[in-house]
Design a protein that fits this description.
three-stranded parallel sheet; about 30% helix; elongated
């Protein structure tokens, strides 16, 4: 409505000024005359001298800043601002009652057993479950052949992540799988969180070793991103011991910072034998 009104106003004003009878007024105000405009663009105007109106075809009478959407501008309802507003006094809450006096707890159904308690329980979510990112021996052998991983050094979870053998989202560690075990034909040494029986047998058959190490959430971050602690001005945390339920599933505590040489198993076996009482 506003745009149409502005358009009619602009059309009427332009028609009055372009009327040939108002030559003296346009000359006085400095507005170009019809003859001057026609000399500039003779094909750009359509004149109807009998009706006293001169229309424009080459020049638009509307501007972009006058365009408006036909969207209703509904204002927010103001409550409690007098009886005349329609939402005064009780502000649309009615008279008395629990809903008129204040808010209630989410899910409260007036004292009866709520829906969430009437419905039976289904399923179970273990809060102590661990999620490991899998990686196969075939993929590790492929990266070794490409020169991205050095088989003479210890292959840790940091090595696998930096080279792209696994994704960046390492939740609770890495699980070594036996996919592509036939491609391992040279000894390699790895430290991962978990390992399958087939993968362990394939690595040991080639003369290598696999060690299951334990890292908690903070220790895993210190292993993968040690530069984060240096940036924050913090020291690397001490390696965490595994909880009693996980002691049978790991071989040793994870070392920090990231180790570069493997620990032979027979050294620990000798130390355990020495520490045992005779």
């Amino acid at each position: 409505m506003i745009c149409r009104r502005r358009l009619l106003t602009s059309l009427s004003s332009s028609a009055s000024f372009l009327n040939p009878q108002n030559e003296k007024m346009r000359a006085f105000t400095g507005i170009p005359t019809f003859q001057s405009l026609q000399s500039r663009n003779p094909n750009g105007f359509s004149a109807n001298v009998e009706s006293g109106y001169v229309g424009l075809r080459a020049y638009s009478l509307l501007s972009l800043n006058d365009l408006r959407d036909k969207v209703p501008r509904k204002l927010k309802t103001r409550k409690g601002r007098g009886i005349g507003s329609g939402k005064g006094k009780t502000a649309g809450r009615g008279h008395k009652g629990q809903k008129a006096r204040g808010t209630m707890k989410y899910g409260f159904e007036g004292g009866q057993t709520p829906m969430r308690r009437r419905m039976p329980k289904r399923g179970f979510k273990n809060p102590f479950s661990l999620t490991f990112q899998p990686v196969g021996l075939g993929k590790i052998a492929k990266f070794i052949n490409q020169g991205k991983i050095d088989s003479h050094e210890l292959i840790t979870m940091k090595t696998l992540r930096d080279t792209g053998a696994i994704g960046k989202q390492i939740k609770d560690g890495v699980r070594l799988m036996g996919r592509g075990a036939e491609k391992i034909k040279w000894p390699i040494h790895l430290e991962v969180s978990r390992v399958t029986v087939r993968a362990k047998e394939a690595v040991e058959a080639a003369g290598g070793t696999v060690r299951r190490v334990h890292y908690n959430e903070l220790g895993l971050r210190a292993l993968i991103k040690p530069e984060w602690f240096e940036k924050k001005g913090r020291l690397l945390p001490k390696p965490a011991r595994p909880p009693p339920k996980l002691r049978d599933k790991v071989d040793s505590i994870g070392r920090l910072p990231a180790p570069t040489k493997p620990i032979p198993f027979y050294v620990e076996q000798k130390e355990d034998a020495i520490s045992l009482p005779s």
